[in-house]
Amino acid sequence: DVFASIFSYDENIEELLDKIYKEASNLKVGNVNITVNLAIGAYNILPHETDVNNILDKAYLARSQIKGLYNSNYYLFDEKLEKQMIEEQSLESSMEEALVNKEFIIVYQPKVFTKNEKMAGAEALVRWKRNGEMISPGKFIPLFEKNKFIVKLDMYIFEKVCQDISDWKDKYGGAPIVSINVSKEHFVDPNFIEQYVKICEKYEIETSNIDLEITESATVDSNIDIIDIMNKIKEKGFAISIDDFGTGYSSLSMLQNMPIDILKIDKVFVDKANLEGDNNVINYIEDMAEHMKVRTIVEGVETKEQVEFIKKIGCDIIQGYYYSKPIPKEEFENYFKNNM
Predict the structure, then answer these.
(1) Which of 155, 158, 160, 134 is nearest to 144 (CA)?
(2) C-beta pairs of 170-173 under 8 Å, 24+ apart in sequence
(3) Of 200, 296, 198, residue with least CA distance to 245
(4) 3-class secondary structure, 174
(5) Tell me: the pLDDT tens digits for 4-44?
(6) Secondary structure (DSSP) of 309-323
(7) What predicted TM-score, i.e. pTM, was given to this entire model?
(8) Closest by CA position to 323, among listed 265, 315, 314, 339
């Protein structure tokens, strides 16, 4: 449902785009009126440009901007997008080398039991330190998902975390349960889980030491048999969390059939909650989780008032800056030694 056109024109480009939109939006087949909603991305090709793929990329990137605009049917490639594209190309050209040079750093954010404020585990998160500068995951993760490099990065993170868990067991006789994000790009090949098991065996750690986090949006992809994938993950002994719950529109009937252990309630539901009342979406999610016998983690908790509210409604675990930001391995070791 994506089409590319090339035009030579003398008039104002916006007038041309308006004309294209109107023509395509008023189609008639026989006596039937057909409504077509177009989203047009446009790029003005410069005289020296001959790389068709690069030209199309720019038009496509412009088209992607329409999603965030109200009442707009087209977007012209501009300086802002040029800058974004140059930045993405720079990241893309150095990602393989960055993996070899160990520029991707694992940090751990503690999770805390609501009842006694003891540590319940941690989430492993990735940062990219490049030329002394820390690059935000928001810049490189979506890019890596698009170009599929995320599969390599996920494997790298998984192995580093297993190595750390093994180190902690040797040093302290035990280690916390660590959750690791799994991109849906892995699900194209359900056998990815066998690779995870081999890595666990390599470092002599139990699969039960690891909680695999799957975003809720990945569960609604019609090309993925998510129930089958989750059953294979559970068979190998891993725990499963649904991340960003409440933002991905999964059906409750599907959720009921998922062999999950934890629902991670998205930060937005805490931020928007009336902390004095009990008529909040988060209250109903917690009630549902109790009936499903699934534990809940509330993400993005930043204030004492939010902590008290979460304790009152009975969520199991809290994760957020109130207790700790994501911290490097050495700092995290001290945290878990003091909070086990």
Answers:
(1) 155
(2) 171/333, 172/337
(3) 296
(4) coil
(5) 999 888 778 888 888 888 888 878 888 898 878 888 999 99
(6) HHHHHT-SEEESTTT
(7) 0.81
(8) 339
